[in-house]
């Protein structure tokens, strides 16, 4: 049984998913619980509930009959995200590589992409731009609609920091197109709104054109009106701050307030 994401007014309802997860576990429907957890763990952890999502993964250990679900229920990529958030980059890299190996074995594209993008982000934050770009490109090559916008914005930031404005501009333009496509299905997709905001900021830097700034602010404000989860805001702050390193003329100062809005 494939469990679908619950929606009601907002894009993501962690309390509803948690209740559903607990119900499946109480009924010993562990494969169904694992399927649900696979769908929601990234969103849930981005809200800042890192330890809780790891506990949910651990609760399923040894209880799943489907080998495909058993592989992802190890929660390795989620644990890597936690370590990266805590600045334990070496350990995070090790777990991301393990996650990639599991994803290869069970042929899970979503899991593979999340691990590759996590790895690319760690390399970006630690200054290894070549490795960051390589892993982001590998993730983008899967052409997975749910994460194309994230891979493209990450590629845009990395390329701009490498001084490759042509590639960076193309990546940001493509990120806007893919974000717009997702937003045409749901205007509550905060992840697509954040990606759109960052890509518009990237184009402003590539072209040294402030005309992109109002739309970037609007995108970030819309995203924060949907969620201000600490993990989500923190991730966007870090990525924006990396992009801002290429802002030699102070074009993004006003946008920074919208990115970091917590109240």
Percent range of helical residues: over 70%
Distance between the termini: 40 Å
Write down the domain tally. Answer: 3
Rg is 18 Å
Listing every helix as H and every strand as E from the N terminus to the C terminus, the arrangement reads HHHHHHHHHHHHHH
Gross geometry: globular
Structural class of the secondary structure composition?
mainly alpha
- Discrete helix count: 14
Uncertain runs with pLDDT below 50, 5 residues or more?
Answer: 1-13
Largest sheet: none
The residue-averaged pLDDT reads: 85
Number of strands: 0
Proportion in β-strands: under 5%
Write up this protein.
By secondary structure, this protein is mainly alpha-helical. It folds into 3 domains: 14-66, no CATH class; 75-142, Serine Threonine Protein Phosphatase 5, Tetratricopeptide repeat; 145-263, no CATH class. It contains 14 helices and no strands. The chain has helices at 14-26, 30-46, 50-59, 67-72, 76-85, 89-106, 109-125, 129-140, 145-161, 165-185, 190-207, 213-226, 230-244, 253-259. Helix 3 runs antiparallel to helix 5 and helix 9 (145-161) packs antiparallel against helix 10 (165-185). The chain starts with 13 loop residues before the first helix and ends with a helix.
């Amino acid at each position: 049984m494939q469990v679908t994401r619950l929606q009601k007014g907002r894009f993501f309802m962690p309390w509803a998913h948690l209740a559903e997860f607990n119900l499946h576990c109480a009924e010993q429907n562990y494969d169904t619980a694992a399927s649900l957890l696979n769908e929601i763990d990234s969103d849930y952890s981005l809200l800042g509930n890192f330890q809780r999502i790891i506990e949910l993964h651990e609760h399923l250990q040894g209880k799943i009959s489907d080998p495909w679900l058993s592989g992802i229920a190890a929660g390795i990529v989620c644990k890597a995200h936690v370590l990266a958030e805590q600045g334990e980059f070496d350990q995070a890299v090790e777990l991301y590589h393990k996650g990639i190996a599991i994803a290869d074995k069970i042929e899970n594209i979503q899991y593979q992409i999340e691990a590759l993008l996590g790895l690319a982000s760690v390399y970006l934050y630690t200054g290894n731009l070549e490795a960051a770009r390589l892993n982001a490109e590998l993730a983008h090559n899967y052409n997975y609609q749910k994460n194309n916008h994230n891979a493209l914005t990450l590629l845009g930031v990395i390329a701009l920091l490498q001084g490759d404005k042509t590639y960076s501009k193309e990546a940001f333009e493509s990120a806007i197109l893919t974000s717009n496509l997702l937003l045409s299905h749901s205007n509550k997709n905060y992840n697509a709104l954040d990606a759109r905001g960052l890509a518009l900021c990237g184009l402003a830097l590539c072209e040294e054109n402030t005309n992109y700034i109002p739309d970037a602010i609007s995108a970030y404000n819309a995203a924060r009106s949907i969620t201000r989860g600490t993990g989500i805001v923190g991730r966007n702050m870090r990525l924006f701050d990396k992009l801002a390193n290429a802002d030699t003329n102070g074009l993004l100062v006003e946008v920074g307030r919208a990115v970091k809005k917590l109240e």
